[in-house]
Design brief:
Layout: H1 3-23, H2 30-52, H3 58-70, H4 90-105, H5 110-131, H6 136-141, H7 147-163, H8 176-180
Amino acid sequence: MTNVEELWRNIIAASLTCGILCIFSDNGTYPWFVIGLVYASFFEYFYHRCISHTELLPLASIKHRQHHRHWRGGRVIDRTRRHLNEDWYFFPVALLAHFAVAKFAGWIPYELLLGFTVFYLQYEIFHWATHIKGNWIDDVLMGVPGIWYLRRQQIRWHLRHHDIPKSCFNFTPPYTGDHLLMTSMGHVDPQYLKWEAFDGKQ
C-alpha cells in the first residue's frame, strides 16, 4: 500500500466514524465547532509530546519512531515509502474515546465532533503533503497570496521537529502548545540539537 492509499484510507475511516457518531450526538451551536478545533490543537500537542515521544503507550511510540527514521532528512518524491500516516484505526479510536467520555458526562454536541474531525483531516492531508515533494496540494496553495507564506512556515516548522525532535510538537498553526510550553525553536536546550536525542524515551 502506498502512502497515498494510506492517506485516503485514513480520511475515509475518520469521516465515516464522525458521521456515525454524529447521528447519536446532540444538537449544539456553531461555537462548539470552534471549541472542537481549539481542543484538537491542544490534543495534537499533548498526544505528540506525551504519548508519541514517551513509552506511555509503546505501540504509539514505536510507530512514531518508525516515522522519524523513515522520514528523516526532509521531503521526498517517493509515494511508496511507508510509515508516513497514522494507522487507519487511530482516529476512530480517539474519537470513540472522547465520545464515550462526553456521553458519560451527559451531553456531546455533534459540532464538537465535527471540529475535532476537521482538524484531524487537515492534519492528515497537510502532514502527507509536508513530506511529499511535488504534490498538487502545495502546487495550488503556493499560488494563493498569504496562504503560501503560512504553508511554507508549516513545512519548515514540522521539518524542524524531524531535525530536533524535542521541539515543534504542534503541526498546525498557530502552534499554541509549543509557544505556551516553550518547545518552539527559541526555547530548545542546545543539548537536543542532534537527531540521536530521539530515542523513544522522551
